[in-house]
């Protein structure tokens, strides 16, 4: 069997749940491949280094399978599941209801948004295919397509996008927002879980926002814009940001609103070989 150890970010510092095993994936493989016979080898590789994501555990599952005709092939999946409460963050994450929303998005809403474009004669994809989504014993698990097999990759957050990449990202985001607006017209308000606000207490008094603004200003100065100061001066203060953020979540049904999902950023540093989170990759579109 091929050695997969040099392809991905392997580390012994991430605790892999015991239930992530061959028996778990046999169910998926039997459903996906009519001629599936058996698993020859299964490699479980952390998809992000320890501490890179505090809301979930991400794993790349590389499986060598044998078919009934004797031929073998390799499949790769990304598994996203909840952290154990005992690890310190699970309880907090559960209060935000993140995973039920993730399950609903990948299983139901995103396919429906893509279907809207199909009805208009267009092919638009927002997410990796979700092969499997389930809740078992209080734990939600998503088994998704591994976009790395299609030559996708994250961009270093320290290097950032060039202008062509940024234009493509904004185009994809606009497609997502437009589809969500049509979805709302046809189906009414999105589920209650998508209408709740989360912002840390006293965020407007913290140093976090100001630090981000300074980084943003420095980045804008390097973009080659004509008179970039006119844009810098429009950046809201922390108080203005918090007030604007809160207004987005009022219950006025007459206001035009769109759906957001994911933390629209790339979380990979320069020189890091790991693929990073797939949580918001659907917004990046075709490479």
Structure, explained:
The chain has helices at 22-32, 90-95, 98-119, 163-187, 207-221, 229-232, 238-247; strands at residues 36-46, 56-67, 72-82, 130-136, 139-145. It is α+β, with helices and mostly antiparallel strands and 287 residues long. It has two domains: 22-143; 155-284, no CATH class. Helix 3 (98-119) packs across helix 4. Mean pLDDT is 79; it is low at 1-12 and 269-287.
Distance between the termini: 31 Å
According to DSSP, the number of beta strands is 5
Q: In this structure, how is the largest beta sheet organized?
A: 5 strands, antiparallel
Radius of gyration: 21 Å
InterPro entries: CHK_kinase-like, EcKL, Kinase-like_dom_sf
Domain CHK kinase-like: 142-286
Blueprint (SSEs and pairs):
Blueprint: H1 22-32, E1 36-46, E2 56-67, E3 72-82, H2 90-95, H3 98-119, E4 130-136, E5 139-145, H4 163-187, H5 207-221, H6 229-232, H7 238-247
Antiparallel strand pairs: 1-2, 2-3, 3-5, 4-5
């Amino acid at each position: 069997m091929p050695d997969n150890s040099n392809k991905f970010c392997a580390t012994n510092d991430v605790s892999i749940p015991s239930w992530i095993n061959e028996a778990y994936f046999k169910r998926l493989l039997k459903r996906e491949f009519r001629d599936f016979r058996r698993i020859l080898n299964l490699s479980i590789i952390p998809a992000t280094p320890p501490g890179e994501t505090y809301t979930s555990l991400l794993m790349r599952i590389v499986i060598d399978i044998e078919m009934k005709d004797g031929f073998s092939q390799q499949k790769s999946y990304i598994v996203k599941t909840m952290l154990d409460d005992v690890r310190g963050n699970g309880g907090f994450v559960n209060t935000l209801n993140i995973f039920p929303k993730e399950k609903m998005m990948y299983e139901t809403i995103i396919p429906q948004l893509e279907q809207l474009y199909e009805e208009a004669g267009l092919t638009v994809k927002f997410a990796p295919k979700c092969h499997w989504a389930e809740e078992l014993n209080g734990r939600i698990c998503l088994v998704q397509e591994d976009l790395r097999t299609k030559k996708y990759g994250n961009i270093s957050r320290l290097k950032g996008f060039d202008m062509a990449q940024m234009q493509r990202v904004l185009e994809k985001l606009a497609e997502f927002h437009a589809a969500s607006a049509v979805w709302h017209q046809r189906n009414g308000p999105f589920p209650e879980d998508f209408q709740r606000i989360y912002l840390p207490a006293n965020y407007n008094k913290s140093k976090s926002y100001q630090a981000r603004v300074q980084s943003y200003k420095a980045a804008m100065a390097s973009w080659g814009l004509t008179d970039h100061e006119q844009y810098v001066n429009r950046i809201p203060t922390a108080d203005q940001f918090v007030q604007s953020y809160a207004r987005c979540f009022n219950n006025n049904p007459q206001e035009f609103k769109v759906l957001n999902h994911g933390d629209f950023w790339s979380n990979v540093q320069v020189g890091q070989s790991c693929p990073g989170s797939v949580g918001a990759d659907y917004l990046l579109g075709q490479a």
